[in-house]
Amino acid sequence: MGEDSGLENLRQDVRDRANTDKILSPAWVLLPFIAVAIGVVVATAALALAFTAVSSIPIEDLEGFDPLDPDFDFNIPPPSVSGLPGALALITSFGLAGGLISSLLYAYLLYLLLSRRNKHFRRQSRFSEDLISYLRSLTSKKGLDAEVGLSNLERTTREMKTTDDEKSAILWTILAFIPVVNVFAILYILYFLGKDFRIHERNEDGFLEDSNRILQSAGLELSVRRIDPTPNRSFILYIILSIVTFGLFGIYWLYTLIADPNDHFRHHVQYEDELISKLSSIP
Known about the structure:
By secondary structure, the protein is mostly helical. It has one domain (3-17, 26-280). The protein is built from ten helices and no strands. It has helices spanning 3-15, 17-20, 31-55, 59-62, 84-142, 147-163, 169-175, 181-217, 235-244, 248-280. Helix 5 runs antiparallel to helix 7. The mean pLDDT is 83.
């Protein structure tokens, strides 16, 4: 593969960022509050409908019906509430609709988190392979001995393919809805979403160090360095904190699963844009 075609492949990989490296808004952490708001609306509607049904009882039906009276005859049948069955049906419908909306929003968020993980890892694999091909052509043209460095890059790329294995976004989103199974599915999703990016980033940093050494031997120097690596967050500790805070810490946990990949993607923008700019300047 020639340098021109190799550089064009790298440019295409960079252009694909718009489809793979989605920056999600931290406002998604408001999802639990949306669920609570839906619950309040449903409860308010339930009270209003029940009050309307009871208030529709004719006054004459209430005559003589006083269970608090010591002399009350409990053989007297209770007044008929004709509107109550319809009210209960509407309350049930509102409750199911509210629960369904909350579940769909949460499912969509899980799908987004899983999907962008897979897409980014696939793009990064292509980018690594295309960069190796380009560097091989570049060093060959300049007569540089970079076989050891290129072999290291190829080994790291193979390791990244193993650790960055595909996790089906559709399958895991479905599993998150199956009763009983969903508890374990969601916990595992939270686990690997936090772990996989950290492992991916560690392998990626090793790849970038080796590729930068080859670029330096070719007379190119890149200034971009990773400033804020993805933290090593304790899965067990986060579970405990979520339990003792009755789920409130889970809001922060959700925020980290959105924000950490966002920071990772922003680093890619800086590094890849500078890399393409430097490679494009080579005569």
